Amino acid sequence: MYEIGRIFRNEGISTRHNPEFTSIELYQAYADYDDMMKLTENMITDIVNQLHGTEKIPYGQHEVSFERPWRRITMNDIVKEHMGFDFTTLDGNPDALDVAKEKAREKGVPNVDKCKTVGYVLNECFEEVRLDEERRTGGAKGWEGQRTGGTNRQFCAAQRNN
User: Fold this and answer.
1) What is the mean pLDDT of the chain?
2) Is-contact 80 86, C-beta < 8 A?
3) What pLDDT, in 10s, does the model give residues 109-131?
4) Which positions ≥6 away from 49 have C-beta within 8 Å?
5) Which residues are within 8 A (CB) of 20 and not within 5 positions of it... i.e. 6 or more apart?
6) What would you measure as the largest C-alpha separation in the chain, in angstroms?
7) What is the DSSP string of 6-69?
8) What whole-number distance in Å separates Cα of residue 34 and Cα of residue 5?
9) How many other CB atoms sit within 10 Å of the CB of residue 160?
10) Which residues, 6 or more positions from 18, have their beta carbon under 8 angstroms from its beta carbon?
């Protein structure tokens, strides 16, 4: 079962978010987030194939590959990969929030002083990594299957080939 809808969210003005967009929600009995990632990956790859006759398409001066399998990585692991800090080492640390903010500041992550939880600091670090990648690649890169703090997040994007 699925639903397609136009959505407007009045969440304030931001250069990071578009308040008006079209969304598709889909539901499958007895499916988990791994099943939804596979379904999404297959659907997008099939659409790209039908439109372009290939799973690799030009994007500016780059080539974007939609070939399966897509990389799946946690928010924590992508931040660790790019910033060198593992947020899971803070589990059980009573000073975790202060340590997380300090590590983020060391890497030049803005806005961490307003963060009220380690999860918010992790998200700010992730957003900084994502923005750095967008600046570096023109936006043609992404990560899928994010999981942090018990919350499953699915990000679908393609990998730019150098």
Assistant:
1) 81
2) yes
3) 998 999 999 999 999 999 898 88
4) 55, 66
5) 6, 7, 8
6) 54
7) EEE------SS--SEEEEEEE--TT--HHHHHHHHHHHHHHHHHHHHSSSEEEETTEEEE-PSS
8) 24
9) 20
10) none
**DSSP label at 146?**
E
Phi-psi region of 148 (alpha: psi -120 to 50; beta: other; left: phi over 0): beta
Cα separation, 7 vs 20, in Å, equals 6
In words, the CATH class of domain 2-161 is alpha beta
How distant is the alpha carbon of residue 115 from its chain centre? 19
CB of 87 closer than 8 Å to CB of 122: yes
Query: What's the half-sphere exposure (Cβ side, CA atoms, 13 Å) at 79?
Result: 25
> What does the pLDDT read at residue 51?
96
Which backbone phi and psi does 152 adopt, to 5 degrees?
-95, 130
Containing 71, the helix (H) or strand (E) segment is: none
User: Could you tell me if 136 and 123 are in contact, meaning their C-beta atoms sit under 8 angstroms apart?
Assistant: no
pTM of the full structure: 0.68
The pLDDT of residue 16:
66
pLDDT at site 145 = 38
